Amino acid sequence: MNLRAFLFAAVASLAAVNADVNMINHDQVKAFAQPEPTTDSDKSAVKFKPQLHISYGCHPYPAVQADGSVSAGLKWSGPSDGKCKGSGLGSQVYSRSGWYKDRWAIMYAWYFPKGRQYISKYRSGHRHFWSYAIVWVDSDKPGNSVIQGRLSE
């Protein structure tokens, strides 16, 4: 890559990062109401939606609200469950689905305002964390589909 192309890409990346985004406190983001499922894909996504069990750390919160404002997250320092034990305004599960190698894949994602990782005896973390689960079924029709497997992080 030549220097001119590299500089252009770097400037474009910085401009995108500094876009006009309204960041609000993580506990002020209002969740969208779950829409009434109308398609077979929507109905399958609701039928197979995993339930989370949070034994420690942050609980999920909505990441973005209707006016486009996004969560500013939380610093990873301090207690792992500090100030993020669940939103009084509701939570949000994000979902997408599609065919992959003759299986219907439904991907679910949850946003957490902070994430922690334990590497050996050291703690490390970051302001925003996403967790996901993928449910594999044999059909996109909710009435007669069977779970083929799952993957989660």
UniProtKB/TrEMBL annotation:
Coiled-coil residues: none
Keywords assigned by UniProt, alphabetized: Secreted, Signal, Virulence
Gene Ontology terms: cellular component: extracellular region
Pfam family, one: NPP1
Primary residence: secreted
Compartment(s): Secreted
InterPro entries referenced in this protein's UniProt entry, alphabetically: NPP1
Signal peptide: 1-19
UniProt similarity note: Belongs to the Necrosis inducing protein (NPP1) family.
Designated name of the protein: Necrosis inducing protein NPP1 type
Organism lineage string: Eukaryota, Sar, Stramenopiles, Oomycota, Peronosporomycetes
